[in-house]
Amino acid sequence: xxxxxxxxxxxxxxxxxxxxxxxxxxxxxxxxxxxxxxxxxxxxxxxxxxxxxxxxxxxxxxxxxxxxxxxxxxxxxxxxxxxxxxxxxxxxxxxxxxxxxxxxxxxxxxxxxxxxxxxxxxxxxxxxxxxxxxxxxxxxxxxxxxxxxxxxxxxxxxxxxxxxxxxxxxxxxxxxxxxxxxxxxxxxxxxxxxxxxxxxxxxxxxxxxxxxxxxxxxxxxxxxxxxxxxxxxxxxxxxxxxxxxxxxxxxxxxxxxxxxxxxxxxxxxxxxxxxxxxxxxxxxxxxxxxxxxxxxxxxxxxxxxxxxxxxxxxxxxxxxxxxxxx
Length: 326
Ligand code: BTN
Fold this sequence. Notes:
Elements: H1 2-11, H2 18-25, H3 29-41, E1 45-49, E2 53-58, H4 65-72, E3 81-87, H5 90-100, E4 107-113, E5 132-138, H6 149-166, E6 171-173, E7 177-180, E8 183-194, E9 199-208, H7 226-230, H8 236-257, H9 264-270, E10 277-282, E11 285-294, E12 300-304, E13 309-312, E14 316-319
Helix pairs in contact: 1-4, 2-3, 4-8, 6-8
The structure holds biotin (BTN).
Residues 89-91, 113, 116-119, 122, 124, 133-135, 177, 187-189, 205-207 line the site of biotin.
């Protein structure tokens, strides 16, 4: 009911009468009043006028379950959200939930992570109140070998979500870093539980730098936030909802075609490595090549110095000749 009341208040230009809410949820006026009081405590500025009802003047930058669910209603990704003020890692919470049998599409969100995880065993800076740390639990009926492709879907969804709420155009560094003005704004960490031919669950963890103003010295040159680039804050819940909406569309296309062919054009249009000289750093093998794009399984297609086309599976790829993080 709380999420629905938030949604109704947001959708209503004028005043939402207490009676309207009572009728809608078949509850007493006191029950409605209690929810309104709770919302006020959480920072929602709600004006209550006798004989008129309630009017939402401003809402805080909170990412509570009710706030997220008020915006993701209608879809499946994030339509059920679990919120933590603090947890070690939302990927860990989503994996626990995956083991318990929680539903496809549930989103785990934290205001702060005490042990945020990056790729390749790195850590992920996760201070409170500023950014997005979220993990989506999925139960796709696909072969385990295809699961990594979902990371690329999420990179597109993040870039599109950012565009929707800010107008900014991000790029993607293959395979899945989202880049803004040459610096990293989002990282994605996908983990999976599977048998040889069966996926139990996939969790896609997303960290987006939203409203940070300061970065640790060692990250300054390579990381940025939406606030740093825009000069004003972004409401995190709206960005979460926009990413979920875009992800649902990409996921539907992916499941229909069974690969990335339907999302490839969107991905490649943002691919920062496209038509660039890149240095491929594979374990035990380092060489230079020219990046052409991706194939339908998400491999980076490059032309090597001797003119051969080659598909790169994983590994660190650094772009030469571009200043900054990428
Ligand atoms: C990277 O190294 O680029 C991936 C970073 C992924 C960070 C996100 S934040 C939410 C989720 N929980 C984690 O512990 N990591 C991911």
